[in-house]
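Entry:
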Amino acid sequence: MSSAVEGRHRAAVLGSPIAHSLSPVLHRAAYAELGLAGWEYGRHEIDEAALPGFLAQLDGSWAGLSLTMPLKRAVIPLLDSVSDTAASVEAVNTVVFTGDGRRTGDNTDIPGMLAALRERGVQQVGSAAVLGAGATASSALAALSTICTGEVTAYVRSEARAAEMRGWGERLGVNVRTADWSLAAAALDAPLVIATTPAGTTDALAGAVPERPGTLFDVLYEPWPTDLAAAWGARGGAVVGGLDLLVHQAVLQVEQMTGRSPVPLAAMRAAGETALARR
């Protein structure tokens, strides 16, 4: 039965682990602000093995899905189409179900990064540094491909990771140089530093923040601030956090799933900040 008949519209975030996700808080805040009665947003613990079965049992009431690890790549073969943005990094974080039953995939992390940087006044940089490798780092390179006019240095822990980042650079049209993680303190002199590593990884770099730092984009939102972000802010540098990224990419998801625009970014951010403060 179609959602139009039922008057019910459902969406959810999928991943494993998923209990920590702030996505329900953000999307529900948007629904409330937009007056979208009958819209629900949940969370489901789903791994790669369970994903095909979960998708197969969804009915017409479903509008879309948000995907986190480890599903961003696993979902691609299960979709009818994938946007150029998602294809560029082989990662889908947004699935929208169309009226004719098609499953379309997109990546809102990349434009979300760019929107979060624009909000802090970063429109273009001459060079940048990326701390870490992996899925978030490749999304960072995709974002940098549109705003960085020069070299991007990626600081990684192994030659395998270094080769991976150079490969992404070639694919995305970014001039990527790699350096060993032991030299990561040098990254902090770049006008834009994007930290994509797990919690605690950059703590040892906090003492190396330069006197006049540029902009730090730390993709973590919990714990917050990280030691590096706190030290960066204390030196007067601009800091973009993981909640900024989460909110901006969620705004784009809400637009795609509901067809409504503009989406209430401020209300979503406030809801996220309140939820984090309670943890």
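Residues 1-5 have pLDDT under 50 and may be disordered.
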